[in-house]
Amino acid sequence: MISTAATSPIKLNPSDQKLKGFKVYEVDRPCHAKPHFTRRDYYKVILLTTKARLHYGHQSWELDGTYLLFFNPHIPYSLELLADYRYGYISLFTEEFIALLDRSESLPQSPLFKIGGTPIFKLQAAQIPFMTGIFQKMLAAQEADYPFKAELIRTYLQLAIHEALQLQPVENFVQHHHAAARLSARFLDLLEQQFPVESPEQTLALKTAQEFADRLGVHVNHLNRAVKEVTGKPTSAHITSRLTDEAKALLHHTTWSVAEIAYCLGFAYPTYFNNFFKKQTGITPLACRKAVGTAVFA
């Protein structure tokens, strides 16, 4: 069983030609050498040939063949191998990495990654060489000295995404807890709609589980149960994680003062923001700003 509790996660190399927020590698070993593609903080696009049982949130599939898979870090999953083989390619990336493509929608809202969507596509024999070629090109670009390889890899990822959108998703799955999945999807969409923060004068309207529950018209305990059931994490953990990611982005990519960032993220005082940020990342906001150019994945 390959689960989200893996203890040896892939680590991105910050010195790897500034290729920050992305990693691709090949899987070509027997099942006793488990691939570490269970990082909860990365999106994943995977090309995999195997016989296995996939559990993804509230859905399950029986796999037998070659598949293109799309995994959202908000949704827990596991892969139960039913044969002694699996091979293919695994790409991991942050939303910040892919967002530089200037996509019109965020990844959590994409039909390939959203909660309640179908993230699995079985490939026909004629489709496998083309998709394999995309992953091989990403792997070659990752190892190259080409200064614009990040942009090239984003293009390959976008091509893989568009190819999948043209395919028919696998529908023979077992689905449970429809109401919880719908409520969780509404919560995550509502959370994501508040970002990115584009002005120091902008401030978040919703910052607590209670405020989200009020907007969604449900009791906060009901919201918490649904989100925990579907994603494996409580509502507050999603809010905290998204606030932390946005804080990092603003510290790295704007000249706004720490006080301005604290205000727009809903903190009444800069000291509250400083304490929050240090608790989540282990460093102060100013230290994070000074560390621009290094990989920070808390």
From TrEMBL:
<keyword id="KW-0238">DNA-binding</keyword>
<dbReference type="InterPro" id="IPR018060">
    <property type="entry name" value="HTH_AraC"/>
</dbReference>
<keyword id="KW-0804">Transcription</keyword>
<dbReference type="InterPro" id="IPR009057">
    <property type="entry name" value="Homeodomain-like_sf"/>
</dbReference>
<dbReference type="InterPro" id="IPR037923">
    <property type="entry name" value="HTH-like"/>
</dbReference>
<protein>
    <submittedName>
        <fullName>Helix-turn-helix domain-containing protein</fullName>
    </submittedName>
</protein>
<dbReference type="Pfam" id="PF12833">
    <property type="entry name" value="HTH_18"/>
</dbReference>
<feature type="domain" description="HTH araC/xylS-type">
    <location>
        <begin position="185"/>
        <end position="291"/>
    </location>
</feature>
<keyword id="KW-0805">Transcription regulation</keyword>
